[in-house]
Design a protein that fits this description.
The chain is of the alpha/beta class. The chain is built from ten helices and seven strands. It binds zinc ion.
């Protein structure tokens, strides 16, 4: 096993308690029935997450202020800070990957004192009056063999593997499917857990970051990593 370890972590519903993107659209879409149909199409693979996100953004009229207000009460997993400290002590590389949007990820990382953590996501574009205008996909199509993600996490994960890292992946949802099939060790909960079980892929079930810290401590104790 490589002595270089990279922890790669989803944001919505993994670092945050709630899936912020999902709940934001749920609150702002004008027609919830069509929105749920759109999500269903994405979940079963009829449309990509890029198409899904583009349509969601196009359907809402909301502003930066609305989004700021929306995230005011959002929380991180209570053990996330301890886990980041643990990863820093162990000198693990730490990368956050999201198929959501950069604005609220950055705002929340800054608020909780994690502005130094690296993340890769899609880019939310605001108009001159602060209105949510569109979403851009700087990483779209970079992942060989995947046309289903806006920001395919597999692409970033494979870059780390190519650099010789042992990759630990942490996620909870549909957008974690691609990367989790290529990571060396996967921690899964919620929809990702169901996916890993259905596919018969190796994984460790977790509830929060304390479970992950315990599990990694146990796994790497003997090798001193
Ligand atoms: Zn993908």
């Amino acid at each position: 096993m490589s002595d270089k370890i990279a922890v790669v972590c989803d944001f919505d519903g993994t670092i945050t308690v709630r899936d912020i993107g999902h709940h934001f659209f749920e609150s702002f879409v004008p027609d919830k029935v069509s929105w749920e149909e759109l999500l269903e199409k994405w979940k079963i693979g009829l449309i990509s997450s890029r198409e899904c996100l583009e349509q969601e953004v196009a359907s809402i009229s909301a502003t930066r202020d609305d989004l700021d207000e929306f995230i005011e009460d959002e929380k991180f997993d209570p053990y996330f800070k301890d886990f980041v400290d643990f990863s820093n002590r162990r000198k693990y590389d730490f990368l956050i990957l999201s198929d959501g949007m950069d604005y609220y990820i950055e705002a929340m990382l800054m608020r909780f004192g994690f502005g130094y953590l690296e993340f890769r996501s899609n880019h939310l574009v605001f108009g001159s009056g602060g209105e949510i205008e569109s979403v851009e996909f700087p990483f779209y199509g970079l992942s060989n063999g995947c046309t289903m993600c806006g920001n395919c996490k597999m692409f970033h994960l494979k870059q780390l593997k190519d650099k010789g890292f042992y990759t630990v992946y942490i996620g909870n949802g549909y957008s974690d499917r691609c990367a989790s099939e290529h990571a060396d060790l996967v921690f899964a909960k919620d929809d990702l857990l169901t996916h890993m079980r259905q596919k018969g892929l190796d994984h460790v079930e977790y509830r929060n970051f304390r479970d992950i810290e315990r599990s990694l401590t146990e796994k790497f104790y003997i090798s001193g990593q």
